[in-house]
Amino acid sequence: MATTTAPQLTAKTYKSEVHNDWCPGCGDFGIVIALQMALAKLQITPHNVAVVSGIGCSGKTPHYMGTYGFHTLHGRVLPSVTGLKLANHRLTVIGVGGDGDGYGIGVGHFVSGGRRNLDFTYLVFNNDVYALTKGQASPTIEKGKKTKSMADSSIVEAINPVALALASGYTFIARGYALEVKYLANLIAQAIQHRGSALVDIFQTCPTYNDLHSKSWYEGKDSGQPRLYKLDESDYDPVVHDPNDRAEVAQKKAQALLKSEEPSGRLPLGVFYQLEVPTYEDCLREKGVLGHEPQARLGAVFQRDIQPLLDRLA
Predict the structure, then answer these.
(1) What are phi and psi of 123, to 5 degrees?
(2) Angle at 125 between CA 120 and CA 131, to 5 degrees
(3) Which of 4, 135, 195, 314 is paired with 91 by a 20 to 30 Å CA distance?
(4) Residue 40 CA to chain centroid, in angstroms?
(5) What is the pLDDT of residue 5?
(6) What angle do the packed helices 107-116 and 77-87 form, to 10 degrees?
């Protein structure tokens, strides 16, 4: 009797038929392709993937993915990711959003998302501007810098996403570049495979509004030296080998912070920090709150009499 095997999933498997209307040359194209490549590399079936986005150019991402998708409110990516993951912990849940959406409007949720260590992946499209609303300065643009879309230079300090993620408790922190698609796809695949809160901050070119950090700038054509380099091509080790060793955890965090703020001006790509500890779901299982079967499939389990609670509040 002949045996049949499931067809090999490719990047095209995760592509929807919705017309993509991002600006020509936008780095968002590379990020979506990298995400599709990462899912194909891991061979995760589309019906087991949910992509959640906020508001901004990046918010269109779920429309271009042949997976489940949810386009939520500005800055509310991670609450929606949390709800989806807890309702069905078997889903691979991926949040996507811009730097304004994640590090500005939604920064409080960003911190809480890291603290919980829920098993999700968050991709932040970092281009220094609020591109959908005509290029206002986002939290990641450096103080004193002025893009062609800004009326004046920024007068506040920029957020360091790696430092913010370290302080918030993310257990996987990486940085990619939108125009280096294959390398970015590998980083995204690693983030998805990681059990816990995973951030991939992605340098993303915006040719329409940000003339400072262009493709040629990242390639160092003005300075004669590429600004980007890869951590995994050096002796850098991001992994905490003993999660119970508080000194090692602190040392690895300090190492990641220093790498994210190199005085040389060069910008490292790759994994900055990785820690394997129990996830939020693990803790819920230990308390008997989360069972083997996803909550979304249990139906009536959510029905309860809330009258006693209402009586207490009366």
Answers:
(1) -105, 120
(2) 140
(3) 4
(4) 18
(5) 63
(6) 30
